[in-house]
Amino acid sequence: RQRPADRAELVNGVGDERYKIIEPQLEYYTTELRKRGVTRQLLWEEYRKDHPDGYRYTQFCEYIRRYLQRSQAVMHFNHKPGEQMQVDFAGDKLHVNLQNKVD
Hints:
The chain is an all-alpha fold. It has 5 helices and no strands. The longest helix is centred in the middle third of the chain and has 15 residues, at 57-71.
């Protein structure tokens, strides 16, 4: 197996045949991670089944992390404290019961 010429290539995966295999799949992996019950471990096991000489779990997760970092947008909200309530909820959908509301 050939090794990349310099440290930057090694860190970025450039020149590594394994990276050429995983790079086109990163979008698929990140899309799958949004689905309920899908974990990095599950995706890695699927990847290793198809590519037994591929990356180990830690490096697999690192490339997913880097891909997410590059592709996720960030929005900053400027507001006065206590003026608004913002909720970032992950998980099952909330159920609201309005039968016992106070008038």
